[in-house]
Amino acid sequence: DDELQTDGNRSGRFRNGELGLPPTNEDVIRIIAAQLAEIGDQFDKEIQGRVVNDLVQHFLNENLSKEEITLHMSRVVRELTRSIPSDMEQEKAMLVLAMVLTKKIVNTVPSLLHRVFNTTLNYMNQQFHNYIVEMVSAVKQ
C-alpha cells in the first residue's frame, strides 16, 4: 500500500502527528530490484522495435478497454518469454519483460505514461502477486 514517489522514496503517512512509514525491509527490496534491473538490461536488447510499436498502437487506441489492452500485453509477454533462456524462472522472466516493455513504451510515447503504468500494475497484480510475495520471502530468509 506504499506509494512510490518519483524520486524513488516511499511516501509516509501521519499517525498521531508523526511521520510513520510502514515496516518494510528496504534491503530486501533493493536486492530484488537490483536483480530484476540486471535481467531487464539483458532483455532490453532482445525486444524488437516492432513489438513495442505494436503495443504503443494498442495503448493509443481509445476504443480498447483496459482489459483488452492487458490481455494483449499478456500475450506479448508470453510470446517474448519463449525466447528467454530456459534456465530462468518463467514468472521472473515474464515480470521483468512486462517492466521492460512498460519502459520502452513510455520512452517511445511519454504521454502514455499514466495508461501504461496502470495497465502494467494491474497486469502484475493479477499475474504475479503471489510470485512477488514468494520472492520477497525467499530473500528475507
Query: What string, H for helix and E for strand, traces the elements in order?
Result: EEHHHHH
The unreliable regions are 1-10, 12-23
What best-fitting shape do the alpha-carbon axes yield?
A: globular
CATH topology: Apoptosis Regulator Bcl-x
The number of domains? 1
Distance between the termini: 23 Å
User: Mind telling me the C-alpha Rg?
Assistant: 16 Å
Strand arrangement in the largest pleated sheet: 1-2
**Helix content range:** 55-70%
Number of strands: 2
Determine the number of helices (DSSP H or I, runs of at least 4 residues): 5
Look at the structure and give the CATH class. Answer: Mainly Alpha
What fraction of residues sit in β-strands? under 5%
Per CATH, the superfamily is: Blc2-like
CATH architecture term: Orthogonal Bundle
Report the major sheet.
2 strands, antiparallel
Give an overview of the whole structure:
The chain is mainly α. It has a single domain (26-139), classed as Blc2-like (Apoptosis Regulator Bcl-x, Orthogonal Bundle). It is 67% helix and 4% strand. It contains five helices and two strands, in the order ββααααα. It has helices spanning 26-44, 49-60, 66-81, 90-108, 113-140; strands at 13-15, 18-20. A two-stranded antiparallel sheet has the order 1-2. Strand 1 and strand 2 (18-20) form a beta hairpin. Helix 2 packs across helix 4. The longest helix has 28 residues, at 113-140. The two termini are 23 Å apart. Residues 1-10 and 12-23 have low confidence and may be disordered. Residues 1-21 are annotated as: Disordered. It is found in: Cytoplasm; Mitochondrion outer membrane. Its main location: cytoplasm.
